[in-house]
Amino acid sequence: MNSYVINMESREELIDIVRGNGDQNPLIFLDSQLPEHPSNKNSWLFNGFERILTYKNGIATQIDGSGNKVSSVKLDPWEALTTFRKEYPGYHCGYFGYDLKNYSEELISRNADVIGMPEFWIGRASKIYCYSVGDGEELKKVQSNRVIENESKPSFRVDFKKIISKQEYLDKIKAAQKLIHDGDIYEVNLSHQIEAEFEGSPVDLYQSMYHRGPVPYAAYLNLGDIVVCCASPERFLKKNGKNLISDPIKGTRPRGENEISDSRIKKELFESEKDKAENLMIVDLVRNDLSRVSKQGSVRVTSLFDVQSFGTVHQLVSRVESEISDNVTQEQAISNCFPMGSMTGAPKIRAMEVIDELENYHRGIYSGAIGFFDPAGDFNFNVVIRSAIIKKNNLWYSAGGAITSDSEPNQEWIETLVKIRALGLDLSEFE
Prior knowledge:
By secondary structure, the protein is of the alpha+beta class. The protein has a single domain (4-430), classed as Anthranilate synthase, CATH 3.60.120.10. 30% of the residues lie in helices and 35% in strands. It has helices at residues 11-19, 77-87, 101-104, 136-152, 166-181, 202-212, 259-271, 273-291, 330-337, 348-358, 409-420; strands at residues 4-7, 27-31, 42-56, 59-64, 69-74, 91-96, 120-132, 156-162, 187-200, 217-222, 226-232, 235-240, 243-247, 249-254, 300-309, 313-323, 345-346, 369-373, 379-382, 387-391, 394-403. It has a 21-stranded mixed beta sheet that branches. A hairpin with a 5-residue loop joins strand 18 (369-373) and strand 19 (379-382). It is globular. It starts with a strand and ends in an 11-residue tail after the last helix.
């Protein structure tokens, strides 16, 4: 089973492949949408999957290129993945769902799994397309052309159906703050999920999210019965040679209506002691996670409190790097750091217990990671946020934020609505 990489000349060529792929052929598009972003210069598209490994409820299942089940075995998820990648070397891509936490720690998931996605999905691709992202002028040209096309040919509809009540979410925030005041936790990422009816082309929904705000770690997954449209600005973990890199995000502000207000809001975020405190707690958590898989003394913070601006929000971003230990595998590096600390809180294990106690839905792929392994032993995975999951005519989208003792519940609620705007829904009535 040989893999080959085809170099492409534009993002539009990759989108054309996505459109022509068909509903039943798995395809994964890792879309670096910001040419000026220094951390992620290549976009990748994977299809022609000759072998797929899925994991659900303790069972690892192999599927061949025709969609036929080859084997099912009860096995630890990370052991199953290691064995699979050794048996079928090459490029592997897919996602890790949030509930893999249950296999690394003694944790459970209390909420019903309505969507029913595997806990992970990793495929060995035979066709790989790569586009090295161009300059900013090219991005503006492509956006302009696509926006005109989309405005004249609307081909999807998202109709809001269900959201948690504002009061219920505020009550959950207050419950989390009581645990913080009692010394049980220091910070927790609390989220909620909206449901909507979807009709039309998932690719066009993905493109509309792109036009509202390009991001460096976007992804489009067509897994047959489920499509994921991910507009993530956050990296979970990258391995480049011996170097491990994680870019936690904590701290969000909406973009301003004009240049003056936008600059003011950006400055406000940079000077916010509350947001810096939230960010620093997660930086310390990521440092601790990386220390478990890195050479002693190699973990370092290389960027702290960098304000990065995207289409609809400003974000406070930091970077933690380290040198991976010689005896640590790629799977061990990921499993020891998973899930991303920005999606849990601190201390990490107790925060995940609190999340499961307070949230009223099953996170699934949300808070997990999408990315790929290359044959050289490197990998790059994002954090699954700002993501729509589509199954038949149903759509789900989750949003949340960090809760600390200083959090103002109403502002936290509004922040989640700001993040949901990537779908183009008007949720002003819920503010």
